[in-house]
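Model it.
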Amino acid sequence: MTATFPDSGAPEQASRRGTRRSGRRRRPRVTIVGVIGELLITAGVLVLLFLGWQLWWNDLVTANAQTDAATEISQQWIKAAPVAPVEPVSPDPVDYGEPIIAAPAVDGEAFAVLYVPRFGTDYHRTIAGGTGTSVLNSMRLGVGHYLDTQMPGEVGNFAVAAHRSAYGGALHLINELQLGDSIYVQTADGYYTYTFRDLEYVQPTQVDVIAAVPHQPGATPTDRLITLTSCNPLYSTAERIIAYGVFEGWQPLEAGPPAELAPIIAAQAQD
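Modeled.
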C-alpha cells in the first residue's frame, strides 16, 4: 500500500494570496470637501499668525518707535531752552506763577510729550493735535489731543486719546493708575504736573467726558484738568475708559524737570 500525505500546497498558496490582498492599504479618496477643509485650516492658521504679528510684534515695534520719537522732541526742547541762572537750593517748592498757555494745537502737529511714571520709567509718548488715524496710528506720534479742548495748564479740560492694544498701545496700562499718581506733560515752554484722581467707564457715545467741565457741557470751568481716554476692554471698542487728573503746578523748561522726572529725562539724554 502506498502511503499518501495531505496535499497542503495549493491551499497554502491561496492563503498567502488572500493575505497579500487583505494587507494592501487603500489610498484615501481625494474629495472637494476635504481639499476645501484643508484650505480653510491653513487660512485659519495664517490669520492667527497675522493677528499675533499685528497685536504683539507690530505693537512692540510701533511702541519703541513712538518712544524714540518722543525722546527726540523732548531733547530738542531741552537743548533749545535758555540756561537757567544758578540759585541756592531751597527745600520749599518754587512758585513759577501762572502757567504759560501755548497756542491751540494744529491737527497732526506734535506739541507735547506725555510722561506717566506708573506706566514705567521708560514711558513717554508724543502728543499731537487731532485724534485721527494719522496721529493715533502713527509710528512717531500715538497720543492725540481733542482739538476742541483746552491746552496744557489752561483752565478747563486738556483731553487726549490713544490706543490700548494696537499701534503702540500708548494707554495700554491706563487701568493701573492709582490715586495720587503723577501725570506730566512737557512742552517747549515747560513741565505741567497733574495728579490722577479717578477712573470711569462710559459708552463710546458719551463724549461729554471731554467737556471743559466733564459731564456738564456748557458749564464754566474753574479747574485745570487732564483727561485720558482709551478703548475698553482690551482688544475691543465696546466702551471707553476715562482717567481724570487735576493740575498741581508747572515749571519752565529752563528750571529743569520735576524731581520724579529728573532721572527719566537724564536717561533720555544718554540714549
